[in-house]
Amino acid sequence: MNEHKKIHLKDYRPFEFIVDHVDLVFDIRDDHTRVTSKLKMKKDPARANETTPLVLNKGTFDIISVVAGDMVLLPGEYKSDDEIFSLVATPDIFELEITNILKPDENTALEGLYRSGSILCTQCEAQGFRNITPYPDRPDVMAPFSCTIVADKTRYPVLLSNGNLVKSGDLDNNRHFAVWEDPFKKPCYLFALVAGDLDVLEDRFTTASGRDVALKIYSEKENIDRCSHAMTSLKQAMAWDEKRFGREYDLDLYQIVAINDFNAGAMENKGLNIFNAKYVLADPQTATDDDFMGIQGVIAHEYFHNWTGNRITLKNWFQLSLKEGLTVFRDQEFSSDMNSRPVQRISDVKKLMAAQFPEDSGPMVHPVRPDAYIKMDNFYTMTVYEKGAEVIRMIYQLLGQALFRTGMDLYFEKFDGMAVTLEDFVGVMAKVSGRNLDQFFRWYTQSGTPAVSMTRQYDENTKSMSLTFTQATSPDRNQSEKKPFHIPVRIALINRAGETVKQDALYELTQETDTFKFENVPADIYPSVFREFTAPVRLTTDFSDQDLAFLMARDTDPFNQWHAAQTLFVNEIKNLVTAIQAGNPMAVSAGLVNAFSLALEENQKDRAFLSRALALPQETEIKDHFEIIDVEAIHQARTFLKQTLAQKLTSEFKTVYELCRSANSDDISGGAMADRSLKNLCLSYLGSLANNDVQDIVQKQFEHAGNMTDEFAAFKILSHMNADVRDKACPAFYDKWQARTLVIDKWFSVQAQSSLEDTLDQVKKLTTHKDFTMANPNKVRALIFAFAMNNPMHFHRVDGQGYEFTAERILMLDKINPQTAARLCSCFNLWKRYDENRQAMMKKQLETMAEQKELSRNLYEIVSRALE
For the Peptidase M1 alanyl aminopeptidase C-terminal domain, which residue ranges apply (predicted)? Predict the structure, then answer.
C-alpha cells in the first residue's frame, strides 16, 4: 500500500497570492470540453516576494496553452503534472490564461466536470475545482467569477452557472452561449455549471424588504411534475430564515437542478444548487413520507448555506463544521418549526446515536475539528455534521435564544465576505454573552463521546435530593488523556402524578464530578435529566426498569419519554442476549409488556411520537450497547422481543391499525403522516408473526395502498416473511415502478436488507440487474451500502462471504469512484469489536485491500486507519 501524505492543521499558511477575478469559458463539444481560465492575480505583499513561486492545484488533464501577460509560455517555462501547475517567478501584478481539455464522459469519480445521463454538471466541494482548471483550490481564496458556456443548442438548450445571466445568444452551426456573473466573491468550491436539455418549474418569492426573487427548479422533462414539494420547501425556508435569523436572499435568482448521478445529497453552490434527484423529486405515489421530510430538510439546508457557508466561508477545510454543523443546526430548527419539534428532536438524536456514537468509538474517531487528513472527502462525517450541530445547540442552550440570535447577527455583520475559523464564531458568542467559553471549545478539539453517569441520593431529614453527575471520556488515537467537557444539562423534577414540581432549568457540568442539590422535595420524586438531549453524551442512570417505565409514561419531556422507552427495550434485549448465551430459555418481562400496552392505548398522544417511542431500536443501534458484538444473539433477541409483543398485544395492534387508516392517501400534512407512521408500526409488529391472517392484511395493504408510504411499508414486511412471499412481491413491485429510478432504488434496498437466508445470493444477482450500475452512487447505496451497513446478520455471515463480497465491490468502486468506495469501507471500521473468528476474517479483507498497489487516497486513509 503506497503511503500518502497527511495535511495538518498546524501547517496551515495563507496563500501567497490574491486572485482579483476569474473568467472561465467552457466550450462544450461532443467528446470533450475546452476550458479557458483567465486569472487576474497579484502577490500578497505581506506573504510573497520576488522569488515566491506560483503553485496551483491541478487534476489529471492536458494543458494545451498557457499565456502569462502577453507571452505564450512553452512547456519548459512552466511545470505541470497530475497534482500541481507552477511558475517559478511572476511579476507583482499579472494575468494568467490557461487552456486545457476535459473529458467529462470519462469522469466516473463525479468530481469536477462530469456527465449525468444527458446533463453536464460540476461538483467542486471539497477539492474538485482543480479537476476543471489549475487554481488555488482552497476555501480561503475568494474572488468574483464570470463564466461563459458555449454548446450545441439542441443537445444543451439550458446553460447555467452561478449568479446572474448577463448575456446570451445564438452562434453559427446551431451553437449558442450564455454569460453568467456572480457579484459576490466566493471560493472555487462554490463554482457550478450545468448544461443539458431540462425543463423548469418557476415561482417567485418576495423578501421582507420587498425584493422580487425568481425561483427555478430544473429537472429532466419527465420529472418536472414532481418538483412542487421542493419549491414549497424552498419558499418555506426563505421565509423562515428571514424571521428566525434575519437573513434575506441576496440575488435576484435562485436555481436548483436535480441530477441523477451525485456523490452526496446536494451542494450549495452560490445561486445554483445542484441536488441529488432523490432530494428534489416527490409525489405521494412515488415518495414516502420520510422522502417528503428529507426533501424539506435538505432543500432548507442548502438554502441556509447561502449565509452560513457562502457569504461567510472557511479559512481552511479543518473548519468544515463551521458551515456544516451550524447549518445542520439551522435546518433542524427549521424542520422543528415546520413540523413536530419533539419528533424532529427524536429523529435527529436517533441518527446521532446510531451513526456518530459508533464513529467516536472506531478508527475514524476525530474531533469536530480534525487535526489532520489525507483526503478531505473522508471528513464529511457524522462527527463534523451531526455532532457539530449538537455543539452549536449547546451554545444555544447556554446563551438562550435571544442572546444566541444577537451573536448570530454580530457574526454575520462582522465576518460577511470573509473566510473565518471556529474561534471567530465562538469568540462572537463569548463576546455577546460575556461568558468564558474556553473550556467549552474542547468540544471542537477533543474527540470522543463523554460517558455521563447520574446517581441519586435522598436525605429524609432535610427533604433534599442530590444528583451527582460523573463524566469520563475514553482515550483514543487523538488524545491519551481527556479533560472534562463543559456540558449543559437541563433538569426538571416530576412527582408520581406526573406533575412537574420543579420547572426545568439549565445546569452546567464542568468537573469530573458535579453535584446539584434540590431542597424541600418529596421522596418519590423523579429527576428528568438532559431534557431535549441538551448534550451529545452517553448517559447512564440508577433508574430501575420500573423507574424507566414510569418516565416512559409520565415524563413531561417527550424526548425523555422516548429515551426511557428505548432504554427499556435495550435492557430487555440485553437480558435476552444473556439468556441466549447461557443457553437459558428466553422470556419477556411482564412489566415491559404492560408499559408498552399502556403507551399503545394512549390515543391522545401525538401518533408520530408514539410511532417512534414504541419502535424497537434496530440491530445496528443495539450493537453499540455491547463491548463484544454477538451478531446472532442480538438478532435472535430482538426478533423474539418483537414477536412476543406482537403475540401478546395482537388485538391492540389491530385496533390501532384500524384507527389510523382514515387519512387520505395523498395527504402529506403532519396529522396524516403521523397516522401512517403509527399504522405502519403496528403492521410491522403484526408482520413479524408471519401467519396467514397477518399475511393477508399486509398483502392487502401492499396491493391497494394509495401512496408509496403504505405500499413500501407493506413491501418491506413481505420481504422478510418467506422466500415464496418475497418472490411474488418483488416482481410485482418492480413491474409497477420500473420506469421510476428512485423507486427502483427502494426496491434494491429492501432486498438487500431482507432477513431471509438467501439474501446474499439475491444481492449478488441484483448486481447484474439491468437497472444496477456501480457508476451511480445512488444505486450503490441502495444495494451494496444497504447490505453492508444495514443487514448485520448477512454482512457478518459466519462463513465470511458477506465480507468477501463487500470488499470485492469496494475495490471495484475504488477504480470508479474513490469517494463512494471509502464511505462503503467504513462497514469494516468496528472489526475489533466482534468475535475472534469474525475479527480475523474482516482483518483479512482489510489487509487484502491494503495490499493493492494503487489504492486511492480516499480508500487508503480508511483502510490504514482501520488497521492501525
Answer: 545-868
